Amino acid sequence: MERSYRNTDSARTFRCLPMRRLLTAAALVATSSVFADGRFSAADVPGAGIHQPGKVVIRNSGATITAYQFFGNIREAIFSIRSTPVKLRTTPFGPAVYDSGARMTTRMPTFLSMLIADAARTHGVDPRLLVAVASRESDFDAHAVSTAGARGLMQLMPETARFLGVANIFDPRENVFGGAHYLRTLLDTFNGDLDLTLAAYNAGPGAVQKYGGVPPYRETQAYVRNVRAAYERALRTN
Questions:
Q1: 232 given a catalytic annotation
Q2: pLDDT one-digit tens code per residue, 145-171
Q3: pLDDT for the residue 109
Q4: I need a surface site. Which of 114, 117, 137, 221 has the fewest CB within 10 A?
Q5: What's the pTM?
Q6: Is 45 exposed, middle or buried (0-12, 13-18, 19+ CB in 10 A)?
Q7: pLDDT tens string 49-106
Q8: Whose CA is closest to 104, among 137, 130, 139?
């Protein structure tokens, strides 16, 4: 069975975000959907009408789903996936994933709990989901570095952190806000489907598109199963 690109040499190895190769994966899986160098004027896409500097914006044309980061009037494609030839079937988890005011019960330092709650409110994501992901990614270690180079609480790769506006990848606040931003982007991209969102977080959206669902990578399947189970446990305790 194929493996995801993540390195899992030991049980303590921290997982890295798929953002590590977002542009590369998108180019390989959907070359017709990725623009030449990622930069083009907003006027190049008629009717886009999107000008939101500093934000990631989702455009769903029905055939292609693309996430953009804006820099003034210039926008850069973070990733792009096509719904053809493999049409993704999504099953929304429900409104809980967007419950940004939910109460957390997981024990952690007060400063981290407050930080996660703030990031959740800012990006409209359930803080309990952020906790489940951060726990799996770094075990709440702000200084964690994976063998692949992913860093911080949410295990952001340096090049992807740049797209999310993260200047200091080891700053807990910037790292968590970047991870929350990306999780919300994936939730919007996959219509609230939790399994596909988590699979894309672990293996990249290109891999999800390629297989039309959760990739057959052992690591990714375990990741989706474990993070979802932790999140569902948190839901039951409230």
A1: no
A2: 988 788 999 998 787 788 788 999 999
A3: 92
A4: 114
A5: 0.71
A6: middle
A7: 334 445 667 666 656 667 776 666 666 666 666 544 457 889 999 999 999 999 999 9
A8: 130
Alpha carbons 109 and 20: distance in angstroms, whole number: 28
The number of C-alpha atoms within 13 Å of 81 and in the hemisphere containing its C-beta is 21
CB burial readout 116-137, b (16+ within 10 A) else e: bbbbbeebebbbbbbbbbbbbb
Residue at token pair 């290109």: 206
What are the structural domains, with CATH classification, of the chain? 18-22+88-237 (1.10.530.10), 25-82 (no CATH)
Integer-rounded Cα radius of gyration of the chain: 17
The string of pLDDT tens digits covering residues 182-208 is 899 899 989 999 999 999 988 888 889
Q: d(Cα 85, Cα 154) in Å, to the nearest integer?
A: 32
Q: Rounded to an integer, what distance in angstroms lies between the CA atom of residue 160 and that of residue 71?
A: 15
Tokens 């303590």 locate to 12
d(CA 146, CA 138): 9
Contact between 101 and 121 under an 8 Å Cβ cutoff? The reply is yes
What is the model's pLDDT at position 174? 96
pLDDT given for residue 150 in this prediction: 87
Q: How many CB atoms lie under 10 A from the CB of residue 158?
A: 13
3-state secondary structure of 78: strand
